């Protein structure tokens, strides 16, 4: 079972062709077909709503108290779509091309092209649902630009685009709940997949309030549970974001693809101490106006304002004159790490660089003076006018920064540092979003399919909604059309009993270890290993050490973790224990994958594979493939390679100089 | 910014489950950095409780960046604590000083029963949305997004209403436990947009009916909800809801 099922024919007609020929299910049969959806972020909520509308019996699960809480809600910047409303030369092909190139030629062309094709429909759908996108005075939709592109194709709702899109999908989902087409299970966590005759046929879920284990049958199961960035402990992910659903799928035979492809976002608020529980992103849009710098002198302890212009090193502008502060995320992150490692970092931790708006404030101030035709304006007044413009553009981000750090970014430059933000890797899926287990699908960040080795800004929201609204309704139907004769399998089937027993055993094991250290203790330790050795830069020696350290940590966890409370009650520590246990396995696989990929590409930087100038060097001859890992028992994985073919986008070495 | 450490006394509501009566427990939080967030302070306290073999305090939280609406602590008598326009997760310990006593309770409202400690059940909000907080449009039916221009001012107002994170602070702050600010934010968002017009009357009627059914109280225009809302949702939304509701009563064809 390792066929990407890419339809034949030219790239731009594959999807039309697929839609015209895939199997359909008649309405009467749809009412008897049950679909289970894990996760209610953009991918899960949009899939649940769309499949409910079609008439399938849908059961949707989320661990939060409401589907509206999913972490898609935190996306700030925007969503890309090839609408070409700005008449600036955008097209489906350009969005497709930018995404493949931005992914450093490690994504599948056919999937990315389909994503670009449906991108416009997403915007139409969201507007029809009442998503309040930003508009121009003429009443039409507004666009802005984002990293890695030369056109304005990003639609946005201030700095809360993810929130508005998710609430749109959430209301569509709740409408289907009211109509009885979707049954929603809040505060439920999926803890295993049930397979019967090789097909995914259901799940075991834990009711997080009562602790009860429940069996749910489905003709198909959709994993829409997001990314696994929390393996690093500190990330911009929500505290509850986890890999558990995807990992249980992996242990039931679904391949896990490109686990080492992690996106480290360059502009996050730096760590302030050991107590830190999560990191907060400052939108990429800030790099449109902010200038990034460090002192030219090592270990400079002066305040930013005391360092004169000629003693500042605007290192991105120096190293990459063509793109300057707007280089892609992976490049900007590595450059910041390089400066800090060399001793030029700022702030108390020395693990930070400045993002400075002083020049932008002055520039905008002067523009205002011109616009308003003012004369005899003092420097202070210019600065004041400039601050007003910056506040209008980025006010909510500046406020957030001030709340967290206690510093005023209008007066002092922001301190920023890269942080784990997104994971391009995930469950391997074919063109139909099906995993290697029949009947088991994966959508959104949980799958690996569209972003290659590096995701461009404003593309995650696009992918989640494309998968849920416009792809899965066709592709899952193609599978379910052959299932109309399968009656709902009673959940006293031995496969359900066995799966439930296995889950119960694991839970009891957690409770009964009664060790000496908290779950967080292990999670923090794992995060440190991952960040130090499988983070922004990786090398053979470090990765080999990391694998041994993770194995040892995992053994210690299963001997010495302390999970207070009982299994049959609301027990957040028990929930965390299950998630960290899975991270302790995934972390090892990420290192194995990073060790295997002896090239640098996108977010994956192997120190052994760089140019003389220290830039990432891809190796297309040996590594132009997707790494799909099959679970073979504790710590054992078999590598399957899906070769990547590029017909329309010929790979070139990326250069931003 | 000057950093400092502090020792605090916490009075935290402990309640094993919805049937338990519950009580305040007094705890010491030692060596708390002014740079921590309020929830990170709770992490430190919980870590200590676990190490002592005691049960940690259960509280809801997820994104920790002020947008998911999951966190929900009533701190020193204020929903989400002392800072205006701020969720509990974005509140930082700089707001407190050494020796302070901090009282932390769950949201208090009959329609939000306690699950455990500081965690409450807010599923009533989902059911209110189910009653009509949407536009009835199926996937794939949409026309081109720009075929219908929308007045920018109305779009901006709709966005301001749509910023609601559904945390329930408005209910917790209200002496009547009314959910009018929450309901009005959704009704306003959709009524302000042309796409939401066809259903605006039934939406207002159905959502208000569901709100009443869930046991939320009535609105007496006190404004505590607006004052405590972390997203600063405006009271004018309630006026708009009343207009829609009364208008529907007079002109509904049903």
From TrEMBL, chain A:
What molecular functions are annotated in GO for this chain? electron transfer activity; flavin adenine dinucleotide binding; succinate dehydrogenase (quinone) activity
Principal cellular location given in the protein's record: membrane
Q: Which Pfam families match?
A: FAD_binding_2, Succ_DH_flav_C
For this protein, the Enzyme Commission number is 1.3.5.1
What is this enzyme's catalytic activity, as reactions?
a quinone + succinate = fumarate + a quinol
Record keywords, A-Z: Cell membrane, Electron transport, FAD, Flavoprotein, Membrane, Oxidoreductase, Transport
Q: Which family does it belong to?
A: Belongs to the FAD-dependent oxidoreductase 2 family. FRD/SDH subfamily.
- Write down what this protein is called: succinate dehydrogenase
Which species does this protein come from? Chitinophaga ginsengisegetis
Automatic annotation (TrEMBL), chain B:
User: Which family does the record claim for this protein?
Assistant: Belongs to the succinate dehydrogenase/fumarate reductase iron-sulfur protein family.
Q: Which cofactor does it need?
A: [2Fe-2S] cluster; [3Fe-4S] cluster
Q: What's an example of a GO molecular-function annotation for this chain?
A: electron transfer activity
Q: What span is annotated as the signal peptide, if there is one?
A: none
What positions does the domain 4Fe-4S ferredoxin-type occupy? 155-185
Q: Which SUPFAM superfamilies match?
A: 2Fe-2S ferredoxin-like, alpha-helical ferredoxin
Which species is this UniProt entry from? Answer: Chitinophaga ginsengisegetis
Output the InterPro entries linked to this UniProt entry. Answer: 2Fe-2S_ferredoxin-like_sf, 2Fe2S_fd_BS, 4Fe4S_Fe-S-bd, Beta-grasp_dom_sf, Helical_ferredxn, SDH/FRD_Iron-Sulfur, Succ_DH/fum_Rdtase_N
Q: What is the protein name stated in its UniProt record? A: Succinate dehydrogenase / fumarate reductase iron-sulfur subunit
GO terms classed as biological process: aerobic respiration; respiratory electron transport chain
